[in-house]
Design goal:
By secondary structure, the protein is of the alpha/beta class. The protein is built from 18 helices and twelve strands. The strands form four sheets. It has a five-stranded mixed sheet with strand order 2-1-3-11-4, with helices on one face. Strands 8-5-9 form a three-stranded antiparallel sheet. The protein is globular and about 75 Å long.
Length: 453
């Protein structure tokens, strides 16, 4: 699933620092053998209920209680549970908050359970290292994985004179934008019917943008510029995991940001607040924007494929991300994880449930919904087959995996503070309040947060 982007919960994450390690409260009634598991994702809550029912049947007397909370409240409630000593036995977590929780001893080290139960970690294709802390210990099991692709309105593509082969092989470079730039310009149409590459085009009166919002305040660029920047050879951090530096001063990154900002300047992409209120957080869904012909193409996550497939009267295709200057693609993949609270009174049963969630049987059962990608390849194959029957083609994402075009989003320190601080700086740049000489100071700010104890 996508990385969580919530500046509002910075205070909640910071509050973890005041928690006394090893709270002894109970998250469930051990006498009745109840295991509590939390998620912010309503779709995964429903999918894993299938596993919960199977688990209860195989373990008479055990109840698995799944609770789903809106993502805006989820981490606040979780932190409050740590403080009060009544957090859930196990829960879905985002890598952005892994460091905060692990460093304050709120997560159970799973190494001994993995060893004693002979749990096979090699069956996971994505996400294992994302849940290893700086002490080298494993604190979580991969729960899912996700990547991004280019979703496009098939009719608009055809009307513009392009084929599926064209969109499947888009090239890009920061100097002139490659064939990607040419396509986006031609897909953009102003309110008088002029295309973005035609004389008389009015960039201030757009009927259809060639591509959705790209200039967001997301400092990882997960659903916007990341696959463009990394296709130049640029990497976000100086290390693949737990970096001490974010490479925002790298000329390749600066050039990419120039290009991304130019898309909205030229009228080919909406301003960040065109359909909402700042930071690219639209109040209109990407699927609705495509269905209403407001945009012809979107960079979006793999988890959105089922929604695009059900847009009324609109056929949507999924293309891979752009081929960079080297002729290769680069696609960021992230993996949410399954953690066990260190304060649980049911550690053995919690591990039994979490390890079952990480089994091929459970992942196959839950993954059939297509709303998330199982981290186990055999289960992923079942997801692809199940979704193909519903008219959803996930081959683009499978090919990313097979062709080794995926790289894992890094773990990093002080995620909540990074989110709050860096989003504001990115917004200054995309709002033309700052220019290229701004990026070294952004890097310095990021590095300070990465290395702050």
């Amino acid at each position: 699933m996508r990385l969580i982007k919530l500046g509002a919960i910075a205070a909640a994450a910071a509050a973890v620092a005041g928690i006394v390690a090893g709270c002894s409260g109970s998250s469930g009634d051990s006498a009745s053998k109840t295991i509590n598991w939390w998620t912010w994702d309503d779709k995964q809550a429903a999918a894993y209920q299938l596993c919960a029912s199977a688990f209860e049947k195989a373990n008479p007397g055990v109840t698995v209680k799944i609770s789903q909370y809106d993502v805006q409240d989820y981490f606040t409630k979780l932190t409050a549970g740590f403080v009060a000593g009544n957090a859930p036995d196990a829960f879905q977590n985002s890598v952005q908050y892994f460091q905060s929780y692990a460093s304050q001893n709120q997560l159970l080290d799973l190494d001994s359970d993995i060893k004693s139960s002979n749990f096979d970690m090699s069956k996971f294709s994505v996400g294992v290292d994302a849940w290893k802390f700086t002490d080298g210990k494993q604190y979580g099991l991969p729960l899912d994985w996700a990547a991004e692709g280019l979703y496009y309105n098939k009719a608009m593509l055809t009307q513009a004179g392009y084929t599926q082969q064209d969109v499947d092989n888009l090239t890009w470079n920061p100097q002139n934008g490659g064939t990607f730039d040419k396509m986006i310009a031609h897909l953009t149409v102003d309110k008088s019917g002029k295309r973005g590459d035609q004389p008389g085009f009015d960039k201030n009166n757009i009927a259809t943008y060639g591509i959705g919002v790209m200039n967001t305040g997301d400092f990882l660029g997960q659903l916007s510029w990341n696959s463009f920047a990394t296709s130049t050879g640029w990497t976000l951090g100086n290390k693949s995991n737990w970096p001490t530096q974010f490479n925002y001063a790298d000329p390749r990154f600066v050039q990419t940001m120039d290009y991304v900002r130019s898309l909205s300047d030229r009228g080919f992409s909406p301003p960040a607040n065109a359909f909402g209120t700042g930071n690219g957080q639209s109040t209109v869904s990407s699927e609705d924007l495509m269905g209403s012909s407001k945009v012809a193409m979107e960079v979006d996550g793999s988890w959105s494929a089922p929604q695009y497939a059900t847009i009324p009267n609109t056929q949507v295709g999924i293309a891979p991300t752009v081929l960079g200057p080297s002729g290769k693609r680069s696609v960021m993949s992230n993996s949410n994880g399954n953690n066990i609270w260190a304060g649980t009174k049911n550690p053995d049963l919690a591990w039994k449930w979490v390890s079952y969630m990480g089994s091929q049987d459970c992942q196959t059962m839950a993954g059939a919904s297509g709303t998330f990608f199982p981290s186990i390849p055999a289960s992923m194959n079942n997801t692809v087959t199940a979704m193909a029957k519903k008219g959803v083609d996930l081959s683009v994402f499978v090919n990313d995996q097979k062709n080794n075009e995926l790289f894992t989003a890094p773990d990093y320190s002080n995620g909540a503070a990074m989110q709050t601080t860096l989003v504001a700086l990115f917004e200054e740049y995309f709002g033309h309040q700052k220019n290229d000489d701004f990026w070294p100071s952004v890097q310095s700010t990021a590095d300070g947060l990465l290395n702050k104890n």
